[in-house]
Each structure stands twice: as C-alpha cells, then as structure tokens.
C-alpha cells in the first residue's frame, strides 16, 4: 500500500508535531496510519451498498471503544502516546499545535476552503474550530464545541459551530450542500435523525443566521486533498481579530468552560 507523505504528516498534526517525535514514535505512527488506511479500505461496502442502522448497532459490542469517546482519550490501535506538556498560559494556537492533532488537518482544510470562497471571517473561524472539540468528545459535538468556544468568539461563530451538527443531515442543494455518502456508511442508509435534531433543524432553518451554520456544512470537507497543504499561520490574523484569548491562559481564566480546556490539556489525569 502506497503512502502520501503530506497526508501522513498531516494526520499526526503537521510537520511541527512530526519534528518532535522520536524515530520509534514515527515508526509507530506510520504503522498505525497504514493500518488505519487498510481498515478503512476493507470496511468500505461494495459500490452502492451501505449498512443499515441495525447492522451498525450490531457492531457496538465488538468495538474496543465507544463511538462517542474523544480522540485524546483512546487509541484506535495499540496504546495512546505520551502528550507534550502545555505552556503555563496556553493559547488557542498552543492547543492546535499540541492537542488538536487528530482534527487539525480537517478543520484547516475546511477553513481554507471557506476563506478562498470569500466567506466572512466569523464563518472562516467557525470552520477552523467546528470539529476540534472531538478531541474531547464526539457525541453532540456541535453543542459541546459551541460551549467550549462561546466565551471567546463572536456570537455568529458560536451559533455556526453549535448548529452545523444538525444541518449536516439535511441537504440544501440551493446553497451547495448534498447529503454525504459517508453518513450512509456511519449511520446507516435507513438512518433518520433523532427528534431533537429534526426540531433543531427546523428552528435553525427559520433563523436569520441560518446561512452561518449552513456555510460550515458546505465547507466541511470529508475527503482531504493531498495536494493542498494548509498551515495554521494562514489564520493567525483571523484568530487575533476574533478570538478573545484570556490573559491567564485557556483553562485558567475562571470561565464556565475552563474545566473543558483543562481536560484537553490533561487527558491523562486520573481524577
């Protein structure tokens, strides 16, 4: 099985994270990357065939971790890796470099697409942040993500992060969004969103800010372009203008969500 060097490096958090790894850690990461690609390839259904909801539910007691667990708290294969320590007063950029390794390539490419298509900076920032809370938890990640960022970002950005999750399940061809085949594989071809998702969609569809979360779904890429390499530096000015970085550091400013940032900083703490 061939490997694209850029894709591999991006999958472990970028060139900066790669440079900090020992040769042994690099070898382990490469092995895990190739194994993941092999598993993904073997798990793909025949063309045009997607699993049902019942078939997906039958897999629950055959998996080593639950589907909703955050990326930092479990290893898909083998053991988790030791994390680099965070600075005493961590910034959003520090979290991108040291904790958002599994999600950074995805959100960077999404934000890059939003920026290049002329989206507002509030939407570009929402695209940059919309999935990073999955390092902490995956279930209801739109709500968790909006809660994580609400004290620090514009109201439209938090709104877009919160409700992009519900809008993902509803096509909007007029605005450039089609229901992705990936969801038929993840949720089942006969999946129907939960009633609270349906109610949320109907509420947001009538809201004056509907296009904010909708544009996150439009730019929410599900297949990375290996020929596009996006660096966080591209978005530093957007972060500087719209992200209210606390002087004490994220996790230590006494906000209602400080504990969430500390959990991301210290996922190995037993209590």
Given helix and strand content, the structural type is mainly alpha
Radius of gyration (Å): 19 Å
Mean pLDDT across all residues, rounded? 89
Name the shape in a single word: globular
Q: Given the structure, what is the number of helices?
A: 14
Please tally the β strands and state the result. 0
So, CATH architecture of the domain at 92-265? Answer: Orthogonal Bundle
Using the coordinates shown, work out and report the CATH topology of the domain at 92-265.
Hypothetical protein af1432
Largest sheet, in brief, is: none
Q: For this structure, what is the CATH class of the domain at 92-265?
A: Mainly Alpha
Q: Give the distance, in angstroms, between the N- and C-terminal Cα atoms.
A: 42 Å
- Measured as a percent range, the helix fraction is 40-55%
Secondary-structure element order, as H and E?
HHHHHHHHHHHHHH
Uncertain segments: none
* Residue fraction in strands: under 5%
Structural account:
The chain is mainly α and 271 residues long. The protein has a domain at 92-265: Hypothetical protein af1432 (Orthogonal Bundle). It is 48% helix and 0% strand. α6 (104-116) packs antiparallel against α7 (121-129) and α9 packs across α12 (211-218). The longest helix is centred in the N-terminal third of the chain and has 21 residues, at 23-43. The chain is globular, with a radius of gyration of 19 Å. The mean pLDDT is 89.
